[in-house]
Amino acid sequence: MHPQYDQPVADYPRFHAQRDPDSIAYIDGGHLCSYGELDARSNRVANALQDAGCKPGDRIAYLGVNSGSYVETFFGANKARVVYVGVNWRLAPAELAFILNDAGVKLVVADEAFLSCLEELRNQVPSLQHIIGAERETFGRWRDAQPDVDPSMAHSPDDSILQFYTSGTTGKPKGVMISNRAMGEHRHSEDQFGYWYLKSEPREVSINAMPNFHIGGLGWLLIGLFRGAKVILMPAPEPGAFLDYVEHEKVTHLFAVPVVLGMMLEEQKKSPRDLSSLKVIHYGASAIAPTMLREALEVMKVKFCQYYGMTETNGVITYLPPECHDLNQPGRLKSCGRAVPGTQIKICDGQGQELPRGESGEIWARSEGVMQGYWNRPDATAAAFVDGWYRSGDGGRMDEDGFVYITDRIKDMIVSGGENIYPSEVENALLEHGDVFEAAVVGVPHEKWGEALKAYVVCKECKNLSGEELIDFLRSRLAGYKIPRQYEFVAELPRTASGKIQKFRLRA
Description:
- By secondary structure, the protein is α/β, with parallel strands linked by helices.
- It is built from 15 helices and 26 strands.
- The strands form five sheets. A nine-stranded mixed sheet has the order 2-1-10-9-11-12-13-14-15, sandwiched between helices. Strands 6-5-3-4-7-8-18 form a seven-stranded mixed sheet, with helices on both faces.
- Helix 1 (11-19) runs antiparallel to helix 2, helix 2 (35-51) crosses helix 3 (68-79) and helix 10 (258-270) packs across helix 11.
- It is globular.
- The N and C termini lie far apart (52 Å).
């Protein structure tokens, strides 16, 4: 049993608190929280937000790792009709300040490690009025100063409930607005995928280890809590802890990116655990290598399901089910699957015309589950949609059976260790160095992370630079995972006759 698909996300804890209040909603380290407790605690958070002056439509943010405070803040914001802003805690201070200002964030709940940074940013973020510590005792005192009476606010399907930030080709992050309606569409779609998705009977156990500042992490958390599963919260996807939880908590479903799956596989080979409770391992961000799949099937003896999606589509738009993870059909493993129920996908040329099966173009998607648009960016929103179809910016083709194959990234996005990185953002930061004349950043293959960043740099006349110097320069400007570790200093960059840099030649 679970809420109706058209119910607001705020109803998830309410529904299960009424039906089975003593069942465990989440485990955070050694701390357990039942659905009844989650409902009451999120009521208190909602009242605390209102007491802090947050009104419907205002923005609040969370800056920290996956935790019970995170879950309670998210649902408290929903109950108060306050828009929750997901913020990547790995961002540099300047990047963080931009997002907080762009969203007009009034209140931030943050882990202790980030409190001093936020205090230093106060003068740069005029809208920021309150900073709340996320540590269990500190957060609990703030939360429990309020009554647990449900604010019982009226919700609309078109309420924005979530705002994630994604970088664009200009390097400026854009706020992606997600509605109650979009969340409901995804829950409805997921129920039609088949047996490998979470069911209420028998009760499922899920691990939420991928960061909740990404739609993949938060989406996976909500899948479990929608269905009344027990969700194990992990601050980071540490392979050994992953496997220990599977064995001791009888985990049935988990989600990870292939780089983490590879580390889990190596850990299982060194120190085998009982993984018999696992029904399916779900993964996304990139395809799984046939060699890894072969070994995983032999060692872990579990089914796999792949997903493809993005922040703007609120997560999954295609899936490759377990039966397609067939080593006898390695070509199919290069696919990201077929459209999920409720989503239409087509491949279009540069003029927006649908292409025949087998031809490569841009992947377009249409669904009630996609974003409402970009916050305060009507220009970018208009450019992203054509007659209700979202233009993904990813290049791909579709075969006769409807399976989609990603052929390239039109927007030049690089995926490293599950993180999306836009080269223009890195290039702009490099150009701030006084001795850099030009820079081009591309993704190069990496055995562990899938892709790594390599920068081609043209120095100004008579200037000598080193990669170490540029790495140090970028530390205060970019999150660590966005900083290239490989540098090649060149006299000039390859260009087309019109002057555009030929990145395909740099990749080669």
